[in-house]
Amino acid sequence: MRVNRRGFALVELLTALVITSMLGAALFRLVDRTQRFTRGTALMADQRAQLAVAAFAVEAALQGVAPSDGDVLVAADSAVSFLAPVGSAIACALGGGFVDLAPPVVASGATLTWWNTAPQAGDSIAILDDGSLAGAADDRWVHAEVTAISALPNACLHSPFLDSIADAGRVGWRLAASPALPPTVTPGAVVRVGRPERFALYRSAGEWMAGWTEWNPIVGRWNVIQPVAGPLLPYAAPGSTSGMSFRWRDSLGAVLSSAGPGNARVVELSLGAVTRHAVRMDGAAGGMRRDSLTVRIPLRNLP
Fold first, then answer.
1. Window from 174-188, 199-213, 218-232, 268-282 with minimum mean pLDDT
2. Per CATH, which fold does 84-194 belong to?
3. Every domain of the chain and the residues it spans
4. Which residue has the higher pLDDT, 267 or 261?
5. Above 90 in pLDDT, residue 211?
6. What is the CA angle 64-204-226, rounded to 5?
7. For residue 124, which phi and psi values (nearest 5 degrees)?
């Protein structure tokens, strides 16, 4: 008696193995392509985010700068130093060598003094001088250096700006200034306190970064520069693509010398970035991807 054994023929097994291998290879290929696409997209998104962060930081700082008032200290092709606002106030009392500022909080709720950061000796002060004429023809900003700062209880208490009863005991500020202020500067004048800050393209740990630092008047040098965004492209001379470059333009759009932007109306900021790792995506050439961003920043108090 003959018994029929159930099973698969060798051809069937080989066919099944080949089909399974093809499906596995297709699935692996799909997963690999998805991973490479996801990673490449993430790298390019991070690259564009770094460009946006650098542009936003520089724009937020420079749009309040007035080159005609001397706010721009040094303007190079890949760096800029400028007077950044420490605070502003209304001078409620003053003498030849000092300015008294009201407390930050007063009973009326009005903001007479505002600080972005605590003032310190060595800061720059600009106070509006109305001059002796009734019009604005002789108005000007008087610049001086803050030589000393002290807390002043009952500051400006008997001035028109405060309530002598409700504001009693509140602490304001007295800023000693040099050189002495002219007698045409009167109470009620606008006071701006500034401190040098700097944006620059610099190299850190093998990568080029957009960095920010602040002047330390106590030790007389810049603080350690801090990264803002990156990595960016390496420094390149004007006319080539650089990681960060500045171009100053006048009201007609002509490029000004970077050494003297006093007549600048707009600063053109160009940024270039490179991905941290090579991008491998189907349909695109592999390798490090570059991207760029250019913004124009209008400057304060200029048409």
1. 268-282
2. Elongation Factor Tu (Ef-tu); domain 3 (2.40.30)
3. 45-82+196-298, 84-194
4. 267
5. yes
6. 35
7. -95, 140
